[in-house]
Amino acid sequence: MDNLSDDGFKNMISKDEFGRRVYRAMIAKGWRQSELARQSRLTRDSISQYVRGKSFPTRYSLDCLARALEVPAHELIPDPQLPASAQADGTFEYRLLPDTNTAFVKLSMKLPAASALKIAQIVADANCREKP
C-alpha cells in the first residue's frame, strides 16, 4: 500500500503535525499508544512512528486510526481536494454532516476584501435559505 506522503499529502501537512494530531486525539480518549494500537488494529510500532512524526500512514491505516479515534480522517490529515493556499496561509476546515446535504465550515485566513465580501454574501444567502 502506498503511504499518503507518496500521494502529495506531505505538501499539506508535516509528519510532525500529523503526529501531534494523532497524539491529541489519543490523549482526548484517555488512551496510551498501546490502547490506540489495539483499538485501531494497527501495530504498536506503527502508532509510535505516527505519534513521533516519523511516517505517514497508508490510506488503510489512516481509516483505521480515524475509526478508532472517532474523528473524521481529514482532521488527522487535511483533505487533498482543498486548495493548498487554504492550508498554507490560514485555516480552512469543513466537515460533511452525515445524512444531510450540509457541512460545517470554519475559515480563518487573510483575504482580499472583495473575496471576504463574497464569502459573507454566500453565508448570508445560505442562512436565509435554511430558515423557515
UniProtKB/TrEMBL annotation:
CDD domains from the UniProt entry: HTH_XRE
Any single Pfam family the record assigns to this protein: HTH_31
Lineage: Bacteria, Pseudomonadati, Pseudomonadota, Alphaproteobacteria, Hyphomicrobiales
Protein name as annotated: HTH cro/C1-type domain-containing protein
Source species of the chain: Zhengella mangrovi
GO MF annotation terms: DNA binding
Residue span(s) of domain HTH cro/C1-type: 22-76
Source taxon at top rank: Bacteria
SUPFAM superfamilies found in the cross-reference section: lambda repressor-like DNA-binding domains
